[in-house]
Design brief:
2 helices; 6-stranded antiparallel sheet; single chain
Amino acid sequence: MKRFLYGFMYVCVFVFLSGCLKTVKEIDYKEVDEVGSFQNLSQLEAYIDKFNNERKSFYRFMFDSAMAENDLAPRTAGATDSYSEKSGGKDHSETNNQVEGVGESDTVLTDGYYIYTVSGDTIYIIDAETLQISDSYTKENVYFSGIYLYEGLLIAVGSESYEPEVKEDDTETSSSSEDYPIYYYPGYYYYYYYNYGVTVKIFDIADKTNMELKRELFFDKADLTDTRMIGPMVYLVMNDYSLSNRPEGEEILPRYKDSAEGEGYRRLSAKSVFYMPSDLWQCSYLLLASIDVESEDDLDLKAYVGNTYQIYMSANNLYAVVHRYWYEDSTSWYLSRTYVLRFAIEEDKLVYKATAVVDGSPLDQFSMDEHEGYFRIATTGTEYITSTKDDIVTVRWNTFNQIACFDATATGKIEPVSILTGLGKPKESIYAVRFTGDIAYVVTFVRTDPLYKIDLSDPLNPVILGELYEEGVSDYLHPINEELLLGIGRQAEINEYGNTVFTGVKVSLYDTKGDEPVNLDTYLVEGEYSYTPVLYDHKAFVSYRPQNQEYIYVAIPITEYEDNWTKYLQSIYVFKVTFNGELDYLTKLTHASEPESGYFYYVDTVDRAILIENMIYTVSESQIRMYDMEKSFSEIASVALNQE
């Protein structure tokens, strides 16, 4: 599913990216290969108008003629401590963040005494001992996607819709209803739902029975890509895709609301908008917001004409991925390239510094890492090889997998200081990556699962130490300590037609002390259609180490299907992993009494677990249940959510 984003469009791009910030009088988006600022609103409008005119021509080209050579074709683009407050009281599990000290939002958090969770348009505070609801907050037309905790504050992030502003005399818009405007361009049309945005709500929760809304922010027509939190600073990365679809005469500058600055919308200044390499697929804004949740200082908001679909953040820098394709004349195929924009954290604000360029594309945020002044990124790409015999030209394709290292302190457009190639068998792609200091683990797959251990202690000379081949594939890698690695993935076999078929969810424990990883044990949940959201959502993976113990508990949501996908059972599987290399299945906890028929309704899906001392809680959008692990996981209490 994660790979679908990278393969559904074949498009080309022009020369671009990076360089130091500077201001120019005339800007042609086709020639932009740097990041810079606009002098004024007129310059920005001229840039956007030229882009949109070319875009109309492009869509006529796409729908009315075949793709020709040299024409532009577009494309849009281990376990660490959660950054949540801990009172020094009850021991508890925390969010599965990628980087220590860099928080990621989640749908359920705990401080050991209370459980904080979101369910649709509602935020709940629940007493963890009694499972009684202490307080809740509901906002119509809002969907909360995640929350943070910080020093008596709860920060909720999500999307919010509102009634659209419709102009009766708008000649650029035709609509079958007021809620769903249809924008027409020569040769095509589409629906565009533009009455929405990203919302941030900051609550004082010192009194758990009385949540107090302190501050609200709203970013109009924005889509949330991701968020991070470092100390009291929340960083939002958003895309505003409506830029090229706004009715004629409508203001093109992004607008936002911040209750700390008063009521009503405010427009971003044109001098806070920057140009960056873009293409014809989507004229959009990449929005970067820095919010201090402890104070009501003005937020720092910047816009870049472009977009990102993936980020990685360290304690020092934010990296935003821009993925592009270009046309290769010699092979008549499209090749991919990744541009990673580095924004340094300076005085708690994000400041553009550099652009790294590498062939291929990263799988997810775990494909990127920063360590001791170097940025590392693992990518998969496609290469085409032509050969001629008897005047017949043959084109063969293959994949390549690599790790590129960059100087994370350099500015401007930067090239890799080293590239490690040779990962994977022919036509294999990267399925999982985990960086742990000087070591990287990489999984490639097409039929078998090579797990590579790589030494990156010398960034100028990375070395493959060893590899392990086994059936199936690990989609998520989780370091237990320096000697043990846990892999969550899928078992696989080759069917009678020679195709790879997944046959269940596998949980594997690896010994990584030596150069070559060794599989110590594997637990298999059988079923061709069985799956776990951990494959694409690392925060669904929960680990917890009780104080002074030489083991951890691991909780993973897994859905099992029976009778050719006609029945299912959705549960939290609980394992115990000891530091001497033992993997033990303990139990599975479900909100259903037996396998059910048909398709499950998402509010009943148990997608999270949290642990507080000897208690484990299973969480869905409709209820929370509490079990005592010291009493054979007997159910102690439950609470219903979303009840009228």
